[in-house]
Amino acid sequence: MLLKHVLPEQYQPTLVLDDERHLSIRLFKDNDQRREKLRPFRILSGSLHYFRVLPQVWSDRIEEMKRAGLNTIETYIPWNLHEPERGVFKFNEGLTDLSSFLKLVHQHEMFTIVRPSGYICAEYEWGGLPSWLLQDNQMRVRSTYSGFLDALKKYYSVLLPILSEHQYNRHGQGSIVAFQIENEYGSYGEDKEYLQAIRSMYIEYGLDELFFTSDGARDLTRGTLDNVWATINFQRHVKESIEQLIAFRSHNHLMISEYWTGWFDYWGGRHQTGSSGVYSADEFEKDLEDILLNSKYEISINFYMFFGGTNFGFTSGGHHFPSKKYSPLVTSYDYDAPLSESGDRTDKYFVIQRVIKKFYDLHPHLIVYNHQRIKEDKFKITERKSSKKAAFNRIKIYGYKTFEQILHDDILTNKCEVKDGPLNMEQVKIPARSNAGASQGFIVYTNNNMEKFFEEKHVEQRVTIKSIADNALVLVNGKVIYKSLCSDNSIQFNIPPDTKNLTIIVENMGRINFGPTLDHSRKGILSKVLLNGTIELQAWTIHTLEFHKGMSSITDWNRLTIDEKNATNIHDLNYGPQLFYAPFHIENEHSIADTYLSLDSQWTKGVAFINGFNLGRYWSIGPQRTLYIPKELLFKGFNHIQLFELYTSGQYVQLVDTPLIDS
């Protein structure tokens, strides 16, 4: 019996570029299953990061984007979400359930653009790179360094076959029509061999839809490949930016892969609605009309962001600009986007809806969705009210855990002893995670043998740490003596002659997600700890607090006595951070709605949890003053809030129905 050798089927890309700047699409239709007809097409896309919104509302956000007139959803894929430990892949539950997200896009009859680079930027923790890469002291990310490319290929060997199955050209069973190679690489490097290596991996693992790169206008030469579609990212200055893209690559269809609808915020900075200051809905409308209605060119566009969402947990990143000092990003990724953090339509939403309606009125043949029906598609504007929000009475703090109790709680901390330390966060070995060090949260260094350094000199002594990231809190004999800011890269402080125990708490405020310093993103104490400039302190007990699990199972709280007469007094946490507990009841399930955690001036800085879910960081310096709580995280009956607070505390917290942002 002869066995016939079957060659792999060659799938034609769904999107087709010609040399006259036109874009066409091959569709599976009931009367054209071989996709022989090319239809004119315009990508009208919006960015929706599935990892910044609860899976329960993925469908709602997708449908709202479709109702604005879009035909495509664009998303990044963060490597650190899907491979949190080397060789441990997560793709099947919660925020990691990528396939379910892609299936939803298909069910809503939309297309998908996927940006699966190992590095995604996105104002996300280390630009999506997994922190365990930093266990390699020679690591050079976004390069041909073998330690990086080998790890990337192993990740791709799992991720890319999943994406391959969701390509549209697989007989119309998927939605993906394009893949980005790297991400704004021209702003970082110009190694074409590295870009070509990524392209080769895409092909090796079965990706055969259209490939593209995206860069700022000044970086096009550095970040592109000759045989790959080059696209551009910008905000404002429409005509100039488009002309720069044409000057660089004159023959291809014009695509804005990121048209920035708003901007992001730094802790301690001003609230931003545009990359260069205020960007109003009226200004946005004029610019969008110039792109879709007034330009002599055919232009496709992706709105970054259409829906921003939330940096839940410890997922927000940081920058070394606008100043050279480290600047961490806030928890909210609202971005002043067309859909707000809670999914409500904003003025910019209605701008897009109006302009696209005018565009479709001029070009009805360009209304194209992902389905096989022959009947021509239509677009009409639909109304929708903003979602209900809930406000609750003040919630009393019931109990607390002292810092010492926290360190002795196996649910909250991991512990190790080192004699040749200190170790940075990435070097610490976690017993349950043999392939990854600590990644996020806090790292605590304690030296319990300081008395010997004072046997001869009963005077204050100087401690110097030349490199530390990020902010630090120093305790001597269990009492706070020194605090530093996250912008302080090195610290010095004096310790008294009666010092027995020295504890240094370091908070990771988010690794750098953009710029030339990506390789220098390690956290914790990064240098020797010197006493009086000469004596090296090497023996440390190290605790890590990542708050990965178990927050809801904590019991045996110390009762907090409420002083109603002094309810507004601020209590300094002189003996280190504390974990606070505030239970409350929701009697009627109909009163469950999105809400916002408001912490008044009594609270300074920390991390908040609702029913064990990490909502993210809070900080009284703003501009973000409240934390978003989706209704899906609340229950009829018993609920609880927990706060890990670093500096000061109050007696109450509050849930309000309006987000508060410093202007």
TrEMBL record:
Ranges for domain Glycoside hydrolase 35 catalytic: 40-358
Record-level GO BP terms: carbohydrate metabolic process
Annotated Beta-galactosidase 1-like first all-beta domain residues: 438-545
Residues annotated as the enzyme's active site: 184 (proton donor), 258 (nucleophile)
Keyword field: Glycosidase, Hydrolase
Domain Beta-galactosidase galactose-binding residue range list: 582-639
MF terms (GO), sorted A to Z: beta-galactosidase activity
Pfam families associated with the record: BetaGal_ABD_1, BetaGal_gal-bd, Glyco_hydro_35
SUPFAM superfamilies in the record: (Trans)glycosidases (SSF51445), Galactose-binding domain-like (SSF49785)
Stored Gene3D superfamilies: Galactose-binding domain-like (2.60.120.260), Glycosidases (3.20.20.80)
Protein family according to the UniProt entry: Belongs to the glycosyl hydrolase 35 family.
Protein name per Swiss-Prot or TrEMBL: Beta-galactosidase
Lineage: Eukaryota, Metazoa, Spiralia, Gnathifera, Rotifera
